[in-house]
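Consider the tokenized backbone below.
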């Protein structure tokens, strides 16, 4: 019996000391691979997440993923190894669900119920500045020299920020259910000379914006906030799929949400990589990714006349009003020239400025 124990200990020691040092268990080992039970080594350490990876070459998960590669993918893997996630990874997040705070416009300095101009003038300001994508200075010029309304460009900006404060809550309360497939992406804008990033998610059938979030980075936390808002109004038993690009923040965010989503169905994720269809997943889902790319171009057309923003709140205000315009006021050719979210209260109103005034009225009533 003692001899058998000695032989077993010798075989175990021989196997153990053949392991590479990076996945050999130590006192600092925190996590182990659920497939091969070897120690995970710390691969990447970021402020919001730490990623641990299994480095064992005989791990069943690694071998299974490697065997799924076709010949072209195996050739590409040799040249671009980082594009293939074959090894088991575990993410340790450094934030909690309570930290997922959606970006919202600041409390306005002026009360729209106490402005000197009429509600019709307010509607014209939003129609020109937001719906027609005319910058604030030109909006003031048009109102002064065509409609004989003396108004400054700063007043235009003040009206926009005040309207955005009410429209933000209105957007979130009235977006309704979402489709099974949603596409997401982020685009950049200039705020005080630096890049800010706006995350968008859009339903692929109804073409409505289901989430928008302004952040300073393209990392995991803002991506998680955007995805969490995008799926907030989904049916509890709904099978949801998200289509994004290759930004690693999206799979990390989905991993965090799925870990806190039980017992609801887990989110599925499809990545469209690059500009060419070099893999089957990109081929199957690229036309969905093109929907969010068109949305980004439409958004850029509305914010480009501003030539950057002097304040973060100004950027968030115009983004919020753009979403209001896009979801409730802008007809889509693919929807037979209907808006993504029709409001019965707007059916009897013919003018664009009248619809803006009605939306502000509905938004103020919802806030009470």
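A designed sequence for it:
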């Amino acid at each position: 019996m003692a001899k058998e124990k000695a032989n077993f200990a010798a075989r175990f020691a021989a196997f153990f000391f053949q392991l590479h040092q990076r996945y050999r268990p130590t006192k600092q080992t925190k996590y182990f691979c659920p497939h091969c039970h070897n120690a995970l080594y710390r691969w990447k350490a970021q402020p919001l997440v730490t990623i641990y990876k299994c480095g064992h070459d005989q791990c069943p998960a690694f071998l299974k993923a490697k065997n799924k590669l076709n010949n072209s993918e195996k050739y590409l893997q040799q040249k671009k190894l980082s594009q293939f996630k074959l090894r088991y990874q575990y993410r340790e997040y450094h934030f909690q669900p309570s930290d997922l705070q959606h970006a919202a416009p600041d409390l306005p300095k002026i009360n729209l119920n106490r402005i000197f101009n009429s509600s019709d003038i307010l509607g014209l300001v939003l129609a020109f500045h937001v719906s027609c994508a005319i910058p604030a200075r030109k909006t003031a010029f048009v109102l002064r020299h065509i409609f004989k309304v003396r108004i400054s460009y700063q007043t235009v900006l003040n009206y926009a920020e005040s309207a955005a404060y009410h429209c933000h809550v209105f957007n979130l309360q009235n977006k309704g259910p979402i489709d099974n497939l949603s596409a997401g992406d982020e685009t950049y804008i200039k705020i005080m000379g630096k890049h800010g990033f706006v995350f968008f998610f859009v339903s692929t059938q109804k073409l409505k914006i289901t989430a928008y979030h302004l952040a300073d980075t393209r990392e995991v936390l803002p991506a998680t906030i955007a995805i969490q808002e995008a799926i907030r109004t989904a049916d509890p038993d709904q099978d949801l799929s998200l289509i994004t690009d290759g930004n690693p923040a999206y799979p990390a965010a989905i991993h965090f949400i799925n870990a806190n989503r039980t017992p609801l169905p887990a989110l599925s994720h499809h990545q469209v990589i690059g500009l060419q269809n070099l893999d089957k997943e990109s081929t199957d889902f690229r036309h969905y990714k093109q929907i969010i790319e068109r949305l980004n171009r439409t958004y850029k057309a509305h914010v480009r006349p501003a030539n950057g923003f002097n304040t973060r709140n100004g950027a968030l205000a115009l983004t919020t009003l753009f979403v209001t315009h896009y979801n409730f006021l802008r007809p889509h050719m693919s929807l037979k020239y209907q808006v993504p979210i029709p409001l019965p209260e707007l059916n009897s109103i013919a003018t664009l400025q009248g619809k803006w005034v009605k939306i502000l009225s509905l938004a103020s009533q919802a806030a009470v």
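The longest strand covers residues 181-191.
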